[in-house]
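target protein:
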Amino acid sequence: MKTLSDINFRDPYILSVPELEQYYLFGTDGLTAWSGAPHGFDVYISSDLQEWSGPIAAFRPDPDFWADHHFWAPEVHRYNGKYYMFASFKRHGVPRGTQILSAETPEGPYLPISNHPITPASWECLDGTLYVDKEDKPWMIFCREWIEVTDGEMYAVRLKEDLSATIGEPMLLFQASQAPWTVGGKEGQYVTDGPFMHQTSSGELLMLWSSSGASGYAMGLARSVSGDISGPWQHDPEPLYAKDGGHGMLFRDLTGRLMLAIHAPNLNPQERPLLIEVQESSRTISIKSL
């Protein structure tokens, strides 16, 4: 058994499955996040968020799989009775993209539902996440990278009901520099990372997302003025988490508490999953305890 301090994961994602009384932890392997040949994605399993069994192989690429490095940010959503993994991949000379995989059980094994990424083939993209709107229509929210556009962009695109392909063109939601808390690089680069959608009990639509802040890697909140994915999107003036950590997601534990999972610090290979209890008001969320 391991604790979270033993698990070198970036971009942690925890799937809570109440009927099984289990949590499933996915993430980017810190050892191969930036260099080396990743073996795939692993999952750890816990019943109390304290002790974790694993790692268990959740995804292992076939020999002819198109990507060979930068296996990043796997997140798993339960949708229409199956489990879908959204993850980003890269190959030398081929733009980074998010691909969708599926499995019958939370731990996998996950298999690609297509032989290519679902993000635009000519764009450098990452961190696709699933959002299901008020009409039960699936969307993918994803980032277009600063390495291509300088000022990182956030997009939404409709998905087919089986998540196998997109419908229509991606819709630009905002650019990273529009948030008051973001800090640009020496040549004006602004990062967009790790979107995650959350709807409050009153119907307020929020997005967690990460970028560079005054104290390093940080995570902020954006909210849709209309309550729909189309926005327009307003940004909180200060980040939700500013202490060199981010790429967050929210889940409810088995007692109903709303929990935030991030990685901190952002320095490789020291990053570890960090769980923080948060509280929700009608319009927002805030950190309850550290």
Q: What stands out?
A: The chain has a mean pLDDT of 96. The helical segments are 146-149. The chain has one domain: 4-287.
